Amino acid sequence: MPPVMQFFGPISEKFKNPHVIGGDGDKMIIKKSEVKALVGDNYRISQDFYDRLSDSVEDLVKDAMARAKENGRKTLKPYDL
Questions:
Q1: How many domains does the chain have?
Q2: CA dihedral 21, 14, 58, 76 (to 10 degrees)
Q3: How far apart are CA 64 and CA 78, in angstroms?
Q4: Burial, 30: exposed, middle or buried (Cβ in 10 Å; 0-12, 13-18, 19+)?
Q5: Most CB atoms within 10 A, among 8, 49, 50, 59?
């Protein structure tokens, strides 16, 4: 079981959205439509960008989890980033 699932338990059904599937079959933790809205119509976005962005966000969250755990907390705070 991945470390995130060990920490938080199974992924909730509300996060199992077929519209946020990454190219390698893993779940994305970003919402493509929100990224596209932020970027606007002046730029196109490759699938690789979405995959890398999702991986980066996942790494940030895992690092924040480790920091919170080191400090004896189960609540992620902004300063954990």
A1: 1
A2: 170
A3: 9
A4: middle
A5: 50
CB 63 within 8 A of CB 69: no
Cα separation, 68 vs 70, in Å, equals 5
Is the entire prediction scored with pTM above 0.85? Answer: no
Say if residues 65 and 4 touch (Cβ distance below 8 Å).
yes
Q: What is the pLDDT along the chain (81 residues), one digit of tens a residue?
A: 455 555 555 554 444 444 444 444 568 899 999 999 999 999 999 999 999 999 999 999 999 999 999 999 999 999 999
